[in-house]
Amino acid sequence: EDVNTFIFEEKVNCLEGYLYKRHPSKKKKWIKRYFRIQDNCFVETNDSNAAIINNTIESINNNNQENHRHSTILRKQGSNITKDINIIVLEDIYCIKILEPSDVGGRKYTFSIEMNNSNIIYISADSDADVILWVSALYHAINIHARESH
What is the pTM (predicted TM-score) of this model? Predict the structure, then answer.
């Protein structure tokens, strides 16, 4: 089930749901991932396990250390190690762009997130409305965090 929730309030901002992320090395492969914008974090994970996401965000917010700027949590499943949660601190986002299908091999409903370190993440939604919702939510969360930081 896809879940999208967004509340435009000063202190509460959360949007969560399934989107597709372009595989970093296999440009034509898109992976369904669960995303959440919460507090000062943009979280990507394999599934919607709220307890794991909340505990990870709480840990990052409590520690607020430089080595938590971009965290990846790995979990061992049998003999394989899988990426469980990828967290980006919102202030590390440099630019967000809504892309044309021709920019990403014909994929519709795509936006990019460029990081301060020049890494670019490509994310695709199911509709234009979802792209606008996610991009607006990211900008809103970034602005709230920027105001609270100063």
Answer: 0.75
